[in-house]
Amino acid sequence: MAEAHQAVAFQFTVSPDGIDLQLSHEALRQVYLSGLHSWKKRFIRFRNGIMNGVYPGSAPGFVVVLAGYMGRAKYVQADPSLGLFCKLGQYIPVSNYMSLETQRRVGGILVGTGLWVAIIYTMRNVLKFLLSWHGWMSERHGAATWKSRVWLALVRIFSGIQTPTLCSFQTSLPNLPVPSVKDTMTRYLESVRPLLEEKEYKRMEVLTLDFQKNYAPKLQWYLRLKSLWATNYVSDWWEEYIYLRSRNPIMVNSNYYVMDFLYVFPTQRQAARAGNAIHSIMLYRKKLDRAEIKPFLLQNTIPMCSSQYERMFNTSRVPGIDSDTLQHVSNSRHIAVYHRGRYFKVGMFYDGRLLLPREIEQQMERILADTSEPQPGEEKLAALTAGDRVPWACARDAYLRLGKNRQSLDAVEKAAFFVTLDDTEQRHDPNNPVESLRRYAKSLLHGNCYDRWFDKSFNLIVYKNGTMGLNAEHSWADAFLWLCFFFLGYTSDGHCKGQPHRSLPGPQRLQWSIPSECQSMIDNSLAVAQALADDVDIHIIPFEDFGKGLIKKCKTSPDAFIQIALQLAYFRVRKFCLTYEASMTRLFREGRTETVRSCTMETCAFVRAIISAEECYRLCTSAKKHQQMYRMAMTGKGIDRHLFCLYLVSKYLQLDSPFLKEVLSEPWRLSTSQTPLQQPELFDLVRHPELVSSGGGFGPVADDGYGVAYIIVGENLINFHISCKRSSPETDSHRFGNHIRQAMLDMLDLFQLPL
Fold it and tell me: In 3-state terms, what secondary structure has residue 402?
């Protein structure tokens, strides 16, 4: 094969005349181009590091400050060095090397540079102080007070006039504050009050008071100490103990999925859809490496943390006996592809450039046309990543880190991302929407339990009919960080634009030697994963009766409206329960998430009122309470991350707190999350109604509970993804979905607005 020859830079033979070197000029050329690409990337990263290090300063700003300082010194006939070299001359004979005029110029440059650096650090710290104020969040949209307008103007001024790059604001973001124990305890008791009977609530009050008085002061001291030392007092512990130390399967339990568009089918050709998608993702990675992506700014001014972008690509979760680790390589020039039980390594660069979409399609066509059979154990190998973590760690160390298995495993784990060319067809069928979307979601969430590498940061799944989707690992980031799929277009016959490459080396088939003992472990993991997958039930509702446009006419937050509807729906099924709503804390450096406890006294009062057909003015009160709690979670005043860290400190100190033990064991029977709609300019449903995003979903958190993800699309559509376990007699995703739909309609009826 041509690619096998080009993989070797030179060969040699031994003859009576000596050693005859046979150089492959093409291979040497590719080595040269690869090195050139690597050095370009190093230079770009070095440059970005300098730019981010001096932000909000800039080179033009430095010239202005230096010229202004030197000009003023000359105008007032003062020494621009401020006597720096005179003092230095007492210890070093500077005059032997520099004239007096040169000393003044060099000293002036040093002092001017110091002045420029002082201005930068002053602006940065003032900006950090400004970003620590969150009063703007409590004001109604479009009705900002003069205080907020002045604050916003100051933020813009101290952000500098230079265009920021992705990580420019990182050092200006405030650290996540540690809430006071008293405030956390007060908010906790308030959150459980609607869930407990009077006797139980009194008992919980006693436990809370005992903890606050006897345990909390010591634990809080350690947390405050950590907050002074660490950038974020929660995130590292959250990543380690919630994700990486879990020994349960990450498939269904942790990983989540993202769907394709509902109605857009740009091509029926699987290879072509993969070619455009992979090329656009690699373009996005290039922009990410060069920090050419704009930081996410609320109201186009308020920066959010960008640290989670760092591990989007070239990242894989590696299993361990006690804890997993995240393996991230700085650069990966290939992807790993799975098709019909075979693994392939596909290079993404040739001739010193990224492969074009038609060339990537060409590589996918070669894989689809490959008729070779899987090697023994190869087809279901990825079932190890879907099962329990300890058997996977044992199998990996014992059998997959040896010989050619090691090279093949490295090719998968160090790939930019993982691609599955799925041999099934998935799509939203208008004639059978419920069942078609259920199959589609379950395929993305777990597939066959062996055809996705669940440890990769994300899997791109491309189906036989051209539909695609994503399955993402959760430990490296929260909510998928908005891959930009560029609209690259197709030819009239469905191919990617452009021409195939005549001499492009083909994909490399990965080689495995998997012994029978390892194959038995694979079968065991597959059995565990299959049982978990079969137990998951998913129901998807494209709710088209109304959307955020009509909800806003009710003078209510769309998110609060939906959360209250979920409480009403759940109450009609069972009763009130502890509810988890994910909220981001990326207003702080290295922030991840916090919990909004959506079941409040106000919400329960509204639900009881609407059930009994009483006056329902309580809806507005309940919505305002929910918005207040959401703002508190976003601004570091949540409950659960503080309690989680206090619990960890108690374990380190071997202090057994009955309060913390009980609180941390409470089940979240209703776990909810809103999928934010990113890149709204690409999803203008007024001009492009066909670009309806399906959003994504996740598995249930509790065995007898529901997982509900929802995405608010445009003005007239809300997509709900509802999951539960079939094995629980208490749950039924279809029944709960019907109650959600009815709850939404019943709440809107209160306002007597026409649909």
Answer: coil
* Residue in the structure block whose two tokens are 């450039």: 353
pLDDT digits (tens, 9 = 90+) for 628-646: 999 999 999 999 999 999 9
| Alpha helices (H) along 89-137 | 100-131
**Cβ contacts of 699 within 8 Å, gap of 6 or more:** 252, 253, 256, 445, 536, 707, 723
Distance of alpha carbon 87 from alpha carbon 177, whole angstroms: 44
Instruction: Walk across the sheet containing 706-713 and list its strands.
Output: 536-543, 717-725, 706-713, 670-674, 579-584, 593-597
Q: Among 40-49, 250-259, 527-536, where is mean pLDDT lowest?
A: 40-49
pLDDT for 483 beyond 60: no
- Reported pTM: 0.89
pLDDT band at 72 (very low <50, low <70, confident <90, very high): confident
Which string of DSSP letters, residue by residue, matches 195-238?
GS-HHHHHHHHHHHHHIIIIIHHHHHHHHHHHHHHSS-TTHHHI
Q: Which range, 95-104, 261-270, 659-668, is most confident?
A: 659-668
Out of 5-19, 35-49, 120-134, 646-660, pick the least confident: 5-19
Please say whether the beta carbons of 329 and 314 come within 8 A. yes
Q: What is the CA radius of gyration of the chain?
A: 29
Q: Would you say how long the chain is, in residues?
A: 755
Question: CB neighbours (10 Å) of residue 286?
Answer: 13
Burial class (CB in 10 A: 0-12, 13-18, 19+), 222: middle
Contact at 8 Å (CB) between 107 and 84? yes
Q: How many C-beta atoms surround the C-beta of residue 647 within 10 A?
A: 20
Cα gap 217→646, rounded to integer Å: 10
Kindly tell me if the per-residue pLDDT of 700 is higher than 90.
Answer: yes
pLDDT confidence bin for 17, thresholds 50/70/90:
low
Under 8 Å CB-to-CB from 644, ≥6 apart: which residues?
234, 237, 238, 664
CA distance linking residue 483 with residue 696, whole number of Å: 14
> Which pLDDT band holds residue 721 (cuts at 50, 70, 90)?
very high
Residue 70 pLDDT exceeds 90: no
Q: Are residues 346 and 365 in contact, defined by beta-carbon separation less than 8 angstroms?
A: no
- Reference 360, options 285, 273, 466, 462; nearest CA is 273
Residue 391 exposed, middle or buried by CB count within 10 Å (0-12, 13-18, 19+):
middle
DSSP for 384-399, please give it: HHHS-HHHHHHHHHHH
Three-state DSSP state, 302: strand
d(CA 393, CA 247): 10
Q: How many CB atoms lie within 10 A of CB 88?
A: 14
Report residue 91's pLDDT band, with 50, 70 and 90 as the boundaries: low
Query: Rounded to an integer, what distance in angstroms lies between the CA atom of residue 407 and that of residue 401?
Result: 8
Residue 238, pLDDT above cutoff 90: yes
Banded model confidence at residue 582, pLDDT cuts 50, 70, 90: very high
In the predicted model, what is the mean pLDDT of residues 117-134?
92
Strands 717-725 and 706-713: antiparallel
Cα(307)–Cα(720) distance, integer angstroms: 29
Q: What is the mean pLDDT of residues 402-415?
A: 96
The values of phi and psi at residue 698, to 5°, are: -150, 170
Catalytically active residues, by annotation: 474
**Contact between residue 315 and residue 326 where contact means Cβ atoms under 8 Å apart:** yes
Cα separation, 325 vs 245, in Å, equals: 9
Number of Cβ atoms within 10 Å of the Cβ of 314: 22
